[in-house]
Design goal:
114 residues, alpha/beta, Transcription Regulator spoIIAA, five-stranded mixed β-sheet, 5 strands
């Protein structure tokens, strides 16, 4: 199986909140860039735009849960926007869905933090 790329783009419009747009599957072979970007972020609110993430494997799920745990310890917020049905189903099956705040769009996630 060829390595599938994951592009992580910081599309933050203003300081104080970080928005990372992910494009591609989150897999064991490619989640390190994502993990690095999340760890480097020190904003109060982090919104992950998963609109273009078609699927996620267990390592990718672990990276998301790790981001949640780290931010919870520091009293910071993590929100997921645009989660596809396939990714959401994987989160339900693995019982990690309960940890996350889901929004249909990045704009909705931004509004809820205001």
């Amino acid at each position: 199986m060829p390595q599938e790329p994951l592009k992580v783009e910081d599309v933050t419009p203003a300081p104080g909140r970080c928005i990372l747009r992910l494009n591609g599957p989150i897999l064991i072979s490619n989640f390190f860039e994502f993990q690095t970007a999340v760890r480097a972020d020190s904003s109060r609110d982090l919104i992950l735009d998963l609109t273009r993430v078609p699927y996620i494997d267990s390592a990718g799920m672990g990276a998301l849960v790790g981001a949640y745990v780290t931010r919870q310890k520091d009293g910071r917020r993590l929100a997921l926007a645009g989660v596809t049905e396939r990714v959401r189903n994987a989160m339900q099956v693995t019982r990690v869905e309960q940890f996350f705040q889901f929004y249909d769009t990045v704009e909705a996630a931004q509004s809820s933090a205001a």
